[in-house]
Design brief:
62% of the residues lie in helices and 0% in strands. By secondary structure, it is an all-alpha fold.
Amino acid sequence: MWLALAIAVCSDAAQFLTGPLGWMGLDAGIDVLVMVATAALLGFHWLLLPTFVVEFVPLAGMLPTWTACVGAVIALRKGVAPKMAASPQLRD
């Protein structure tokens, strides 16, 4: 888990440093490698797909989306994320 998080942080930092319009091919390559690496390390999770797509949107790719996604996947896998509980129904 720590390795997947380190990869996500490093990739987000590298993409931020390349700028919004900088090395488009490099950014896409980083995204593909991060997707494959995190899926291999954490197992596939559906949150990886929208993150992968968002990375190709101009300016949105500069946000730390991989870090947030990997953090969310780790939290969900560990059961730290809040679970959906049936809310009590209010009666008059």
